[in-house]
Design a protein that fits this description.
Mean pLDDT of chain B: 87
Shape of chain B: globular
Largest interface: A-B, 24 and 18 residues
Distance between the termini of chain B: 57 Å
Shape of chain A: globular
Largest sheet of chain A: none
Mean pLDDT of chain A: 86
Helix content of chain B: 55-70%
Radius of gyration of chain A: 20 Å
Oligomer: heterodimer
Number of strands of chain B: 0
Number of helices of chain B: 8
Strand content of chain A: under 5%
Order of helices and strands of chain B: HHHHHHHH
Low-confidence stretches of chain B: 226-232
């Protein structure tokens, strides 16, 4: 049974980073993300559900594929003692955990999509907004849980907690930075009510996510994007609090005495 | 105590040692006949060229060959002009490395930085293909370089300490000088990201001023350029 060791991997999980284990983990992540992806796109149309079922695993594959060398180099240079394959498996495991969480919620989100007002109804925009909020929270929750597990995995393997913390932060920054841009390129995922169903947008390679966010902040703040960016940064920091708490070493009972 | 490296230092051994056993590598470099300097320089050149091609993809056309050449030449020249001061500063810090050993370590640091730049290359390419903003692309390139050179300098510091260096400040100052030189290269060898009628410009400028001027600029469409001279 692959699911149990994948959901609760021990320190020996990364020892055997062979092709079979990597392939099984990748397959689990793909199937889970496809199931969740279908439920995400289904609200707009079943065809959109099919597209998102392909695009969600593709997003992870593109991010891990493009950052594979960098993740491996950082894992080695920051002193975790993990080789390239082990780094890859560690990250794939984290993505698979998030995928399993989301995949397990797919029946619920499918039910949600099934019951939400249809995209051509008058309440379509409200439904779309609520849909976005729910899925953003679910994805955020799955991401935090999987990264907490990834940190435990790294802390078990790395010679020091510092090395594990530094590696996790470096991986998070690198994969988050590129993954966000890939999600921009591969949009639409949720499918806005007014727009046609499409696998990719015609302007997919025009502009990037960060510039779009900056322009939005500029508009929302009436020409004071620095203030808006600061507030956004604070909001992100609050969302990341569980992860930051996990990075801080806990005091054991003999230390406190 | 790290295990000694084999007598024959091929590319694979050097690659592994740079990433996993910098201490053992420094000790091996102290012995004669390692032939590592040339291999490190080659590794650095190939890495810089490939990263340069990726940055050249931003403006395309002549920058596909000009950007890799400028980046590689710029970083090698920066290494060469900073080498005499590195020897003096490392010796002041207490290092007992010979000039040859130090040259091998500097080449190793550049090779390591190059490998990290290669790691950033796929991400940089994705953004080079999707943005027209000089500010964004410039920050991305500089950010990747700063992270890469940080690891290179860390290797250099470890090498100096393994060779007996006890004081931090001389090497810290040298690192700052080297960093400034490489950042100034982005302006001295401009345009690296954008397009121009000329391969190089004669106008002198400090890099902060140049970056400030370019931050809000966008890449112009290809047909907005003149069809003569270097733009072709």
């Amino acid at each position: 049974m692959l699911l149990l060791p994948l959901l609760r991997p021990d320190a020996a999980w990364l020892e055997r980073a062979d092709s079979k284990r990597i392939a099984r983990t990748a397959l689990t992540a793909t199937v889970s993300l496809a199931a969740y992806g279908f439920s995400v796109g289904f609200w707009r149309s079943p065809l959109m559900g099919g597209y998102v079922a392909v695009k969600m695993p593709l997003l992870i594959a593109c991010t891990l594929g493009c950052n594979g060398l960098l993740n491996g180099l950082l894992g080695l240079l920051l002193g975790t003692g993990l080789g390239f394959r082990q780094s890859w498996l560690a990250l794939l495991t984290a993505f698979a955990q998030a995928a399993l969480i989301l995949g397990s919620l797919a029946p619920v989100t499918f039910f949600l999509a099934w019951n939400a007002p249809s995209p051509d109804s008058q309440q379509a925009h409200t439904a779309h907004s609520a849909y976005l909020v729910v899925h953003t929270l679910l994805i955020g929750f799955a991401g935090v849980v999987s990264n907490v597990h990834l940190h435990r995995l790294l802390a078990d393997r790395a010679p020091s907690r510092m090395a594990a913390n530094a590696t996790l932060c470096a991986w998070l920054a690198g994969n988050g930075f590129l993954g966000t841009q890939f999600s921009w390129i591969l949009r639409p995922f949720f499918g806005s009510p007014g727009q046609e169903v499409a696998f990719l947008r015609p302007d997919r390679m025009k502009g990037n996510f960060y510039q779009a966010v900056w322009r939005c902040l500029d508009r929302v703040s009436g020409g004071n994007p620095e203030l808006a960016a600061t507030l956004l940064g604070l909001a992100i920091a609050i969302l990341c609090l569980p992860l930051l708490l996990n990075l801080t070493p806990k005091r054991t009972s003999h230390e406190s005495h | 105590m790290p295990a000694p490296l084999p007598d024959r230092l091929d590319f694979r051994t050097l690659f592994d040692a740079l990433l996993r056993e910098p201490q053992a590598l420094v000790e091996r470099l102290a012995q004669p006949g390692h032939r590592a300097t040339g291999r490190f320089v080659l590794l650095a050149i190939v890495s810089f060229l490939l990263f340069g091609v990726v940055l050249g993809c931003f403006a395309k056309y002549e920058q596909l060959w000009a950007a890799p050449l400028k980046i590689t030449a710029g970083l090698l020249v920066a290494g060469a002009i900073c080498f005499p001061s590195l020897f003096i500063f490392a010796t002041l810090a207490g290092s007992k490395m010979s000039a040859g050993q130090l040259a091998a370590c500097l080449a190793g640091a550049l090779a390591l930085a190059g490998l990290l730049l290669l790691g950033f290359a796929p991400a940089a390419w994705i953004f080079a293909e999707s943005t027209d903003s000089f500010g964004f692309m410039g920050m991305l390139g500089i950010g990747a370089w700063l992270i890469a050179v940080l690891f290179g300098l860390r290797f250099l510091k470890a090498a100096a300490r393994a060779a007996g260096a006890t004081q931090r400040s001389p090497l810290f100052i040298w690192s700052a000088v080297f960093l400034l030189v490489t950042l100034q290269m982005t302006t001295s060898l401009r345009p690296i990201l954008g397009r121009s009628e000329r391969l190089l410009t004669q106008e002198k400028k400090f890099f902060l001023q140049h970056w400030g001027e370019q931050l809000g600029q966008q890449l112009k469409p290809a047909n907005a350029h003149s069809t003569s001279g270097f733009s072709r």
